[in-house]
Specification:
Shape: globular
Largest sheet: 2 strands, parallel
Strand order of the largest sheet: 1-2
Number of domains: 1
Organism: Streptomyces xiangluensis
Keywords: Lyase
CATH class: Mainly Alpha
CATH topology: Farnesyl Diphosphate Synthase
Order of helices and strands: EHHHHHHHHHHHHHHHHE
Protein name: Terpene synthase family protein
InterPro entries: Isoprenoid_synthase_dom_sf, Terpene_cyclase-like_2
Number of helices: 16
Strand content: under 5%
Distance between the termini: 44 Å
Radius of gyration: 19 Å
Length: 358
């Protein structure tokens, strides 16, 4: 049962890179030459993800020569998600998925020439080579580590699907934190911005918490964005709303309201903690923290207008709406909702409310 999502609470300023259109042109040219687009329908579906628009909102001040590469990975990620994670022979076979995902991950990590029979592995290897040519080893290592965590999260999700298991709320949040792909998406910020956040800052508990909170907010927002599409494809078995319906006996309407309230509590903590950290942060870290917020806001704006979520087949039915999503006031609210589920009682995320400092 589909239930309308309440307006989004997000007191973060909207932003988008001025070269978003050119980024889209270059990234689409790359994905079309990658061998992954075998039919006109597939090309239209890839274009319908509007991945360049998506990442141009995450990194509105990025180097254009790096931004288009990140957009290529987002196009690739959506294609991989559809073909290998949500549908197809790997989508309910965790053993087969593990072997395939390891080979894809290894293709990303190996430098230099590499023969890949798998088109997805070959494409992500090329992206890895482009990243290695434009960013340093630390930034590439962080991205690769986040990429591996994403694939591990997806394997957990596929294992639940294969076993007919609906995770409880705490397990679902742990899984979703990785399976949604937010980790590698945010890890690319250093690469596209040419940043080098010192290890003592990036690896500190407080910056880890802020990164995880931004990832969680965007992941829960995507649960709502994707509901129409997933319902049409019968892929809603693991969704924050269904978790709350199953384990807490909420009605669908109550579950939606509670999921939004839980998400708002995380966003409130993110905003307050970021305000505490920013004055003491280095310049690269301040830029990174600002873009964590741009990612939260940009993900909402992208999700409110992208054919991937608005059309069951993922393809645009016609021209873009004349009114940009960020100006449609009915989509936004100034007040967070109050959650019945105190997130500080959920073991996997309770530490975000610890006494954290830089």
């Amino acid at each position: 049962m589909a239930v309308d999502t309440p307006p989004f609470y997000c007191p973060i300023e909207s932003a988008i890179h001025p070269e978003a259109k050119e980024t889209e042109r270059r990234a689409l040219a790359w994905i079309e030459g990658s061998g992954l687009c075998r039919t006109r329908t597939e090309r239209a579906r890839y274009a319908g993800t509007r991945s360049a628009d998506f990442y141009a909102r995450f990194a509105p001040h990025a180097d254009p020569e790096r931004l288009w590469i990140a957009a290529c990975w987002v196009y690739w990620g959506f294609a991989f998600d559809d073909a290998r994670c949500d549908e197809g022979p790997f989508a309910a076979d965790p053993v087969a998925f593990a072997a395939m995902a390891f080979s894809v991950q290894r293709a990303l990590e190996v430098p230099g020439r590499l023969h890949c029979a798998d088109l997805y592995a070959a494409a992500v290897h090329e992206i890895g080579e482009l990243f290695r040519a434009t960013a340093g080893p630390v930034q590439n290592r962080r991205f690769q580590h986040a990429h591996r965590a994403w694939l591990t999260g997806v394997q957990w999700q596929i294992g639940n699907r294969a076993g007919g298991c609906m995770p409880d709320l705490d397990d679902y949040l742990s899984m979703r934190l990785h399976a949604a792909g937010g980790g590698p998406t945010y890890a690319m910020l250093e690469i596209v911005n040419g940043l080098d956040v010192p290890d003592r800052e990036m690896d500190s508990p407080v910056v880890r918490a802020l990164t995880e909170m931004a990832t969680m907010v965007a992941s829960l927002d995507n649960d709502h964005h994707s509901h129409l599409r997933e319902t049409s494809r019968r892929q809603t078995e693991q969704n924050i709303v269904n978790v709350l319906v199953r384990h807490h006996r909420y009605t669908p309407r109550q579950a939606v309201d509670e999921a939004v309230a839980l998400r708002d509590a995380v966003l409130e903590r993110f905003l307050g903690l970021r305000d505490q950290v920013t004055p003491r942060a280095s310049s690269p870290l301040r830029h990174y923290l600002a873009d964590l917020g741009h990612g939260i806001r940009g993900n909402i704006e992208w999700g409110l207008r992208v054919p991937r979520y608005l059309s069951p087949d993922g393809m645009a039915p016609g021209p873009r709406a004349c009114i940009p999503a960020q100006t449609a006031t009915s989509h936004w609210t100034d007040a967070p909702r109050t959650s019945r589920q105190d997130p500080r009682r959920l073991p996997s995320i309770a530490w975000w409310w610890s006494d954290l400092a830089l």
